Amino acid sequence: MNTFQDLGLNEDLLKAIADLGFETPSEVQDKAIPILLEEDTDLVALAQTGTGKTAAFGFPMLQKIDVDSRTTQGLILSPTRELCLQIANEMKQYGKYCQGLNVVAIYGGSSITDQAREVKRGAQIIVATPGRMKDMISRRLVDISKIQFSVLDEADEMLNMGFKEDITDILSHTPDEKNTWLFSATMPREVASIAKKFMREPQEITVGHKNQSTNNVSHEYYLVNARDRYQALKRLADANPDIFSVIFCRTKRDTQKVAEQLIEDGYSAGALHGDLSQNQRDIVMKQFRTKQIQMLVATDVAARGIDVDNITHVINYQLSDEVETYTHRSGRTGRAGKTGVSMVIVSKSEVRRLKSIERIINQKFELKDIPNGMEICEVQLMSLANKIHNTEINHEIDKYLEDINAMFEDTSKDELIKKFFSVEFTRFFNYYQKAKDLNVKVGDRDSGREHKAGGNAARFFINVGEKDGFDWMKLKDFLKEQLDLGRDDVFKVESKDTFSFFNTEKEHQEKVLAHFTDFKHNGRFVNVEITEDKPNRGGRGRGKRREDRKGGDRGRNDRNYGGPKSGRRRSDSSESRSRRSDSGSGSSRPRRSRR
Ligand code: ADP
Ligand code: MG
Fold first, then answer.
1. How far is the CA of 595 from the CAs of 242, 247, 293, 296, 591, in angstroms?
2. How far is the CA of 48 from the centre of ligand 2 (A)?
3. Which protein residues have their CB within 5 A of the ion that is ligand 2?
């Protein structure tokens, strides 16, 4: 196996590497660094998250730039502000012995003049988000006409986020002779086309198996009724008292909601999504990194690439439409040789998706039971015992000992222990003693939802479908937001090519019809009608009815639809919601002990 010396890195970098404690190069580093150091070439590198891509392009770039010059020589584009800051920080650490090095991060949401000033002081390397970069170019606040190296980091995600035009625009201001290094976890068609367009005969390296999750992550799933999702989440958290996790939701709104509920229920949680101000996002990330927050509830975009050590669990509160997203999510844990668990909470209707993920990541999901109330009480009790056992005594207490001893003079050790533990245990016990079993058994024909669909549900036809960018999940989100209904009030959503079906409880029927009367979306009338509850029988003569079920994999082009968003009401003021003191109402829920 190669060492970092073998790869041809210089002393300054080797010293920094030693400081960082990196012992051997990771696979992508081993493959990319020699090529990038020795050759003037373009490169496409595919590697999962957490494989050390930053250093794979960072070390060669640092070695090749001229620190004595103040000209900007390297440009790294990355999708989010968080990643941008993370990469800039890594680069500064890698280059800490490179005298005169100046790495500047530029990103939206923070003063452009400050950033321009930093650039002006002479930044050899700029790490930027595409939006702000474009902005600064058009205002002539940066000059990238002499760069020699451009990196597209997390290229797939940048394209997902619609940065293709910005990237094209930015690269048009760079010299043709530069080298472009593209790093991506996956290689969808869009990335391939970018590579083709902007790169000259790029060398390609692939690390590990495409789309395969890291092997030190185990994958579990929990089958519950959709309406029990949140309860299930709480139990998973309670059954893992030392949990340090990222919880993924599909929409900003759900992210915010789940975080708020967790906070209200006494957990140390925080939300991370694009509707929060930059400042709020920074605060939440800082709290998470310093473990003041145990559960970070996040959208995929906001959490992309975030590198926080020692995450024990990734919880897929909802699955995303994209299989690749699952890989990114689960890659947040099991890093740096540690093991991690990726949990998926699913309802029956999602099991099929799970199977298609299994196929693609080539790993099995293990079906697990949501722990019951007594199991959780037991875990909590033992965790407390363990904590007490390991607690260092605070001698400030000594001065009160006499009084305390007097109080317990007649209490035996045995009794004292029981009393002591009861303080904590009783809260959980009271909460959980009547808790129901949340698990849906695999053989069950239906899952609650189906009962409802039978008697008390209304079924609707709507004249938008996959062609309009609405796969069933997006349609469900759209309807929920339009109708201001809860997570599980819209169900049995079935998306066809040009139309779809969905159910709600009968009680919402009038509201649904009223809302979609004369309703326009993206300039087009959207029509909703009551239909009969037999969605699967074809040929009722409702327009062109093609049953082109795509199985578990949704069409790729769905992801960039500009649709529902524009019709969305913005979620109510996101101000000061991410963090709220959890001083407590006397709710029936057990409150978690602070640590
Ligand atoms: P990626 O961009 O592939 O998701 P990162 O570059 O963010 O991965 O690296 C993930 C983590 O691994 C970072 O904390 C980084 O400091 C660390 N790391 C990178 N290379 C090595 C190495 N050779 N040995 C040990 N840790 C490494
Ligand atoms: Mg990275």
1. 10, 21, 11, 17, 12
2. 9
3. 53, 305
Whether residue 65 contacts residue 41, with contact meaning beta carbons closer than 8 Å, is answered with: no
- Report percent pLDDT > 70 for the chain: 85
Q: Which of 98, 340, 359, 376 is nearest to 235 (CA)?
A: 376
pTM of the entire predicted model: 0.51
Query: Which atom of ligand 1 is the closest one to the Cα of 51?
Result: 3
CATH architecture for the domain at 5-206: 3-Layer(aba) Sandwich (3.40)
Decide: 26 and 37 in contact? Cβ < 8 Å: no
User: For ligand 1, is residue 25 a contact (CB within 6 Å)?
Assistant: yes
d(CA 306, CA 299): 12
Q: Is the CB of 2 under 6 A from ligand 1?
A: no
54 touches ligand 1 (CB under 6 Å): yes
CB atoms within 10 A of CB 519: 14
The token pair at 231 is 């309860």
* Closest ligand (CA of 155): 2
DSSP states of 132-153 as a string? HHHHHHHTT----TT-SEEEET
CA distance 181 to 76: 9
Query: Any bridge partners for residue 205, and if so which?
Result: 45
In angstroms, the CA 441 to CA 435 distance is 17
The reply to whether 217-372 and 457-541 are identical in fold is no
CB of 27 shorter than 6 A to ligand 1: no
Report the topology of domain 217-372.
Answer: Rossmann fold (3.40.50)
| Domain segments of the chain as ranges | 5-206, 217-372, 381-430, 457-541
Q: Which CATH superfamily is domain 457-541 in?
A: RRM (RNA recognition motif) domain (3.30.70.330)
Per-residue model confidence as pLDDT tens digits over 288-322: 999 999 999 999 888 876 778 889 999 999 998 77
Ligand 1 binding pocket includes 22 (Cβ within 6 Å): yes
**Quick one: which of 110, 84, 105 has its CA closest to 307?**
84
Of 113, 111, 93, 221, the C-alpha closest to 103 is: 93
